[in-house]
Design a protein that fits this description.
Helix content: 10-25%
CATH superfamily of the largest domain: P-loop containing nucleotide triphosphate hydrolases
Order of helices and strands: EHHHEEHEHEHEHEEEEEEEEEEEEEEE
CATH topology of the largest domain: Rossmann fold
Number of domains: 3
Number of strands: 21
Structural class: alpha+beta
Low-confidence stretches: 59-69
CATH class of the largest domain: Alpha Beta
Length: about 425
């Protein structure tokens, strides 16, 4: 079955964790012992109902404060599709966690409290989802039961968000009125909102079309590992393992290996289940070549007339994720696809106000959770596409050279 990754976003107390708990509960994706544990904790806290948010708020601090801090991942499936859910926090100080949860998402659910309407965090998270090029955005107007299921409240919130979304790059936008606590329009259509003619949230998640979201034009395989199994049924077996980042690869295709630039053809494309006739994103495969070339981890397999950009000077939008500010002259480690290189920060061009989208060109550093345009110089060339063209080959992470801790995430800019 097809896999859909989606993440939640929105302000504090908009009901993100409760919504995911309701999805899991109503779709029968919760084990009995999990439900019993949640019911027990809810009783201990003196609550009159089962707090389904506890299914994702797993940290002790999260349960004590009633907030989400870390990114919680949950898995469930229906007869139509498999799902991986990322429950991300709403607090501004945990923006980095929201970026992490949405970086691999196919769809983002932005929740809005029907009583409060569009707030600063709504705009912040919607912009970040747009910046991360999440293809599909769903605005869930939650807690409709607390406003008497009033259609005018829903319509006004939708109109305000549509006006803001015109400034974003959102290719697919949907609006669904829900009550996560009561389950209205979450899994089943609600009789309390007869004026709403759209789908339930789960039905939308099952039917949203994601096959065209991945880049099938530019063939790219970053080499993760050189496979030389002992006792192989093929003498002198040598394959190059990696996840397909773009395009389609078939046996007999002519390919080029970077950085050497040498050209050969594909002998076979193998998977755990055996050889396949073609490979495409996001399949993990082992490619055998007809000629013995010097190929190692960090190299890139592509097509002779369709190369990624190869350069040492990188311009990118960077989300900074640590307390120590990012400044020109800083030395960092960069992980791009399967390649690690060292880098120096050449310049911080501007800091972006994610609430107003204003560029602060007087800024010369990025603080925790801030986003800005940065120029880097790396010690070895990277093989990349712009993030707009390919989210895999157009992204990287920054790590501290002293601690190896991830300190930033980058999206490479380009002219395409």
């Amino acid at each position: 079955m097809e896999l859909l990754r989606f993440a939640t976003a929105g302000s504090v107390d908009d009901g993100k964790s409760t919504l995911i708990g309701r999805l899991l509960y109503d779709s029968k994706a919760i084990f009995e012992d999990q439900l019993e544990a949640v019911e027990r904790v809810s009783r201990q806290r003196g609550e009159e109902f089962t707090d389904l948010a506890l299914l994702t708020d797993g940290l002790r601090a999260e349960r004590e404060q009633g907030i989400t801090i870390d990114v919680a991942y949950r898995y469930f499936s229906t007869p139509v599709r498999k799902f991986i859910i990322g429950d991300t926090p709403g607090h501004i100080q945990y923006t980095r966690n929201m970026v992490t949860g949405n970086s691999t998402a196919d769809l983002t659910l932005v929740l809005v409290d029907a009583r409060k309407g569009i707030v600063e965090q709504t705009r912040r998270h919607a912009f970040l989802a747009s910046l991360l090029r999440v293809p599909h955005l769903v605005l869930c107007v939650n807690k409709m039961d607390l406003v008497g299921y009033d259609q005018s409240v829903f319509d006004n919130i939708c109109a305000e968000f549509k006006a803001f979304a015109t400034r974003l790059e959102v290719s697919d936008l949907a609006f669904i009125p829900i009550s996560a606590l009561n389950g209205d329009n979450v899994v089943q259509r609600s009789p309390n909102m007869g004026w709403y003619e759209g789908q339930s949230l789960l039905h939308h998640l099952e039917q949203v079309y994601i096959a065209s979201d991945r880049n099938l034009i530019d063939p790219r395989i970053p080499v993760q590992w050189v496979v030389r199994p002992t006792g192989s049924f093929i003498p002198d077996y040598r394959g190059y393992a990696g996840r397909v980042a773009g395009g389609v690869f078939r046996p007999g295709d002519e390919v080029t290996v970077l950085p050497s630039g040498l050209t050969t053809t594909i002998a076979s494309v193998d998977t755990f289940d055996g050889p396949v006739t073609e490979a495409f994103p996001p399949m993990s495969v082992v490619v055998r070549l007809t000629e013995d070339l010097d190929v190692s981890r960090g190299d890139m397999i592509c097509r002779p007339h369709n190369h990624p950009t190869m350069a040492q000077d990188i311009d990118a939008m960077v989300c900074w994720m640590t307390d120590k500010p990012l400044k020109p002259g800083d030395f960092l480690s960069v992980k791009h696809t399967t390649r690690w290189v060292r880098a120096v920060v050449k310049d911080v061009h501007y800091r972006l106000d994610v609430n107003t989208l204003h560029r602060d060109e007087a800024a010369n550093s990025l603080a925790l959770n801030e986003v800005g345009r940065v120029s880097l110089r790396v010690t070895q060339p990277l093989f990349y596409d712009s993030y707009r063209r390919n989210r895999t080959t157009g992204s990287f992470i920054l790590a501290s050279e002293e601690t190896n801790v991830t300190v930033g995430a980058g999206m490479i800019l380009g002219t395409d």
